[in-house]
Amino acid sequence: MDIKKWVPWNWFKKEEEGIGKMVPVKRENAKEQSGVPAHPLQQFHHEIDRLFDQAFRGFGLYPFGFDQPLFPRLADGILKPTLDLGATDKEYTITVELPGVDEKDVKLEIINDTLTISGEKKQEKEEKEKNYYRMERSYGSFQRVLSLPEDADQDKVNATFKRGVLTVTMPRKALPKSDVKQIEVKST
Fold first, then answer.
1. What global pTM score does this model have?
2. Which CATH fold topology does 10-24+36-171 show?
């Protein structure tokens, strides 16, 4: 029985290693955004949420993640799109949700058994009406770094982009069987 078959592959080990290397982005607190000091209970609630997020981020978990946005931000301000990983006997499938992102703004690279999906979200919306004018802008860069398993065929990767969803498929290749040598134990 091959025990390695039952051990899950850690797709995110490279991403977890690189979290500390990202460039920080300025963040404003509630007081700076509105000009009005936040209520002390609201500040306390925000601080508790931040502590829980920080504690569980190391495990790749969001304890109360039902209300997480489609494009959550890491503590340093970089967008982190959600993704799904799937595997069959024949291929791996990675699906990344990129709402509001154009296909031309998405970049995929494989370097040293690591798949990097990166890009920028640029969105502008302008409304002109008789009594008002509104301009909304949304900008941000994103990056996901995935460690590829040994049996992923990196030479046959296929990527498609449709309606804000990036789908990456990678066939699985057969790995050479490892030679197991039995070592005789002798008594002395």
1. 0.56
2. Immunoglobulin-like (2.60.40)
